[in-house]
Amino acid sequence: MNDTFRAQQITDSVYWVGAIDWGLRDFHGYATSRGTTYNAYLVLADKIALIDAVKAPFKNELLARIASVIDPQRIDVIVSNHSEMDHSGCLPEVIAAVEPERVVASKAGAETLRQHFDLTSIEAVEDGAVLDLGNRTLQFVETKMVHWPDSMLTYMPEEKLLFSQDAFGMHLATIELFVDNLPRELLEAEAAKYFANILMPLVGPISKALAKVQQSGIALDIVAPDHGPIWRRAEDIAWIIGKYVEWCAQKPTMKAVVTYDTMWGSTERLARAIGEGLKAGGADPRVMPLRGSHRSDVATEVLGAGALVVGSPTLNMNMFPTVADVLTYLKGLKPQNLVGAAFGSYGWAPAGVRHVHETLAAMKVDLVDDGLAVKYVPTDENLKAAHALGVAVAGKLKAACARG
Ligand code: FEO
């Protein structure tokens, strides 16, 4: 086997044996502008365990990194913490190559792997079960819906190491293995983007999982996620857990996201006036034209914002397609505690604004009146009304922030 790809040692017994996907730019609709890693870990104890696998095209990279440390056929146990195919895609081929004694997953994970790959030999482990590797042990912690029904964490007490699967991860391709060797701004941007686009709809189960880990009293020296760098300094682990608590709470801030598309520039002129009004009212507007702002970047800005103002022209008695796209995406992500408004221009019926308004209402956004619909090209009066709408949204936002 070629020795281009090598394992990297993390602790006395644990090696990183994952894959780096430098070229990934789309992860089911999420723009991954910095690529990603699929992390897998090899535990060299009396018995040898592989924790998670990688996306199917990266199987040879995984096996080569394992082979740089041991013969892959020496692996006794494979643990699948999460069945999504970025971690399980090569599992059938890896099982065939390694022939482990056991492959374990949560109960839902065993079923999911059967449904994906017709794998019938997966052993289901209970929440709290312990797998003895001799001089190391693996403890399984079920974390249903964080972020799939099958999700679980694996904790190794001897090295106070948590294999956290997607949790605390980020889509960031890097040869640098540890968080503490990367800039904090980059980590915050990518961890927030990951949380906004993958985890935001699941803040209830995530809060429960955080409480479960905290109540268990387990010590954490290392948190090893399935994407991006590894957390190993106490201050960094405390920081990312604190960020998760903050992102779960989604307390309103004075940040206001204005996103829109435009046909002939009228809706854009309204957006500009609304942005000025938001600023005049004391808010911090982020104006994001959809020609140039990816839906996943809008979602990231919405996490940590207190207002969402959405503009659309009317096209064929409907919203503009790009606006429908971002609203469909945001609705699924279930952002919380937002105020907002709909706006836009129209030709003969204000259907676009009405659809935006109805969608925002269905998302439980606390809306200012019916929003603002302007026929054809905004007049000076219309622009004043748009400015006033921005001021009104900022006022509502101030009140929401005061309530906390
Ligand atoms: Fe990284 Fe939910 O898979």
Lay out the secondary structure.
Elements: E1 8-9, E2 14-16, E3 19-21, E4 26-27, E5 30-31, E6 36-38, E7 41-44, E8 48-51, H1 59-67, E9 77-80, H2 85-88, H3 91-98, E10 102-106, H4 107-117, E11 123-125, E12 130-132, E13 137-142, E14 152-156, E15 161-165, H5 184-199, H6 203-216, E16 222-225, H7 234-249, E17 255-260, H8 266-280, E18 284-289, H9 295-302, E19 307-311, H10 321-333, E20 339-346, H11 351-362, E21 366-367, E22 372-375, H12 380-403
Parallel strand pairs: 8-9, 9-10, 10-11, 15-16, 17-18, 17-19, 19-20, 20-21, 20-22
Antiparallel strand pairs: 1-2, 2-7, 3-6, 4-5, 7-8, 12-13, 13-14, 14-15
The structure holds MU-OXO-diiron.
The site of MU-OXO-diiron has 8 residues, from α2.
Q: What do these coordinates show?
A:
- It is a single chain.
- The protein has 404 residues and is an alpha/beta fold.
- The chain has 2 domains: 8-249, Ribonuclease Z/Hydroxyacylglutathione hydrolase-like (Metallo-beta-lactamase, Chain A); 255-398, Rossmann fold (3-Layer(aba) Sandwich), CATH 3.40.50.360.
- Helix content is 37%, strand content 22%.
- It is built from 12 helices and 22 strands.
- The protein has helices spanning 59-67, 85-88, 91-98, 107-117, 184-199, 203-216, 234-249, 266-280, 295-302, 321-333, 351-362, 380-403; strands at 8-9, 14-16, 19-21, 26-27, 30-31, 36-38, 41-44, 48-51, 77-80, 102-106, 123-125, 130-132, 137-142, 152-156, 161-165, 222-225, 255-260, 284-289, 307-311, 339-346, 366-367, 372-375.
- A 7-stranded mixed β-sheet has the order 1-2-7-8-9-10-11.
- Helix 5 packs across helix 7, helix 8 (266-280) crosses helix 12 and helix 9 packs across helix 10.
- The protein is elongated and about 75 Å long.
- The model has no long low-confidence stretch (mean pLDDT 97).
- MU-OXO-diiron binds next to helix 2.
